[in-house]
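pls design
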């Protein structure tokens, strides 16, 4: 499970056996969510509203890096 970023208590990662569309998993304090990288659509969310808002902001900032790491890992 490659970890891409740990920031302000959030851990951003993907699993070694992922599938399309490109997406990222994020956990914080035992809560988690899954976010599509191309659309920032929240697929699954078990986070507090303020945490998912912050997670989305972080994904948007690091999106290019996350997509590059996805491509490097899976291609």
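designed seq:
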């Amino acid at each position: 499970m490659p970890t891409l970023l740990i920031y302000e208590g959030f851990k951003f990662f993907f699993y070694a056996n992922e599938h399309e569309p490109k997406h990222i998993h994020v956990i914080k304090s035992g809560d988690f969510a899954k976010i599509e990288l191309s659309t920032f659509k929240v697929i699954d969310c078990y986070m507090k509203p303020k945490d998912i808002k912050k997670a989305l902001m972080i994904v948007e900032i690091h999106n290019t890096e996350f997509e590059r790491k996805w491509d490097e890992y899976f291609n």
